[in-house]
Write a structure and sequence with these properties.
two-stranded parallel sheet; alpha/beta; single chain; 15% strand; 12 helices; 308 residues
């Protein structure tokens, strides 16, 4: 019986705030008795995965998400206008460091790796040694938002550009069963159709002065302010927001690329988070609950295939 026990690896996708659903997924897996021997993460999945593998309790992560003043954090998060990104990431790094400290991959009780992309070569980079903080910071560096990270002669950005669901990367470990946690945003299709129908003239006049931006001055940075500003449903119907364009664009890119990586998993858990924005961190607890719901739907399949 023991000889047939599956060695489970869990792959956590990207998806910015929507990726917080992975916390709920991991909670249900733990309740079912699933003990992964390895975890791979891309972008937000790398944050959740690194914390989990380095010994941070899931309840502690959930508590932090609920207690953080995300709106202030995002609006005043080291804004800068450089050649490499509009957020330099110092404040993000401080948050990561509060969890990861100075830990390395070798400090993890569960094997962990995360995915980034070297923009100098266009190649995928799977990070599995050295500083956890540096690796995760590279994996979450959304091009245009966060400055890339220079590491070992490479210029690294968000791994979601190549492998949004790291089911291929996790094969570097001794596993024989892969569970993928992949966010789904099917509800965005309706929003995308609306954007296509909308008169393009509504975009006229929406020009922002990018030359008068000071560090931390979010109120004068109109476009970024709109990304994080929660709009009412009536406002969304009346105009195309920067948030809707960004959310939809990122979703289209991720959806098309994720399909082939999902095929590599033995089970795919798909939290439905399409009605949340990519930067909707203020609704983190709701997103986490969606992860729990999605994992519970797959519970019987998981127990059957893993003989739990």
């Amino acid at each position: 019986m023991w000889g047939r026990k599956k060695k489970v690896g869990v792959a956590l996708s990207g998806g910015a705030a929507r990726g917080l659903a992975h916390i709920g997924v991991l909670e249900v897996l733990k309740e079912l008795g699933v003990e992964p021997v390895a975890i791979a993460g891309t972008s937000m999945g790398s944050i959740i995965g690194s914390c989990y593998c380095s010994g941070i309790a899931l309840k502690e992560m959930e508590k932090y998400v609920a207690s953080m003043d995300w709106r202030s954090f995002l609006l005043f998060s080291d804004l800068t206008l450089s050649h490499t990104g509009i957020i330099n990431g110092r404040r993000v790094e401080r948050v990561l460091k509060s969890f990861l400290k100075d830990k390395t991959f070798s400090d993890c009780s569960t094997d962990f790796c995360c995915v980034a992309v070297d923009v100098l070569t266009g190649g995928k980079v799977v990070l599995s040694s050295g500083s956890l903080l540096e690796a995760v910071r590279a994996s979450i560096s959304i091009p245009g938002f966060f400055s890339p990270i220079c590491l070992d002669g490479k210029l690294l950005v968000d791994g979601g550009l190549i492998e949004p669901l790291p089911t291929e990367a996790i094969k570097m470990f001794d596993i024989n069963f892969i569970i993928g946690s992949s966010i789904t945003c099917e509800r965005d299709k309706e929003k995308y159709s609306y954007l296509l129908r909308e008169d393009h003239r509504t975009l006229k006049g929406q020009v922002y002065d990018y030359h008068n931006i000071g560090t931390g001055n979010a109120e004068r940075f109109g476009s970024l302010h709109n990304i994080f500003k929660k709009k009412s449903s009536s406002e969304n119907k009346k105009s195309i927001s920067v948030q809707s364009i960004l959310d939809t664009s990122l979703n289209i890119m991720q959806h098309e690329m994720t399909r082939r990586y999902a095929d590599l998993a033995d089970i795919v858990i798909e939290p439905e988070v399409g009605d949340f924005g990519f930067f909707d961190l203020t609704r983190g607890n709701e997103i986490i609950k969606r992860g729990r719901v999605a994992a519970e739907v797959k519970a019987s399949e998981i127990k059957r295939k893993l003989r739990l």
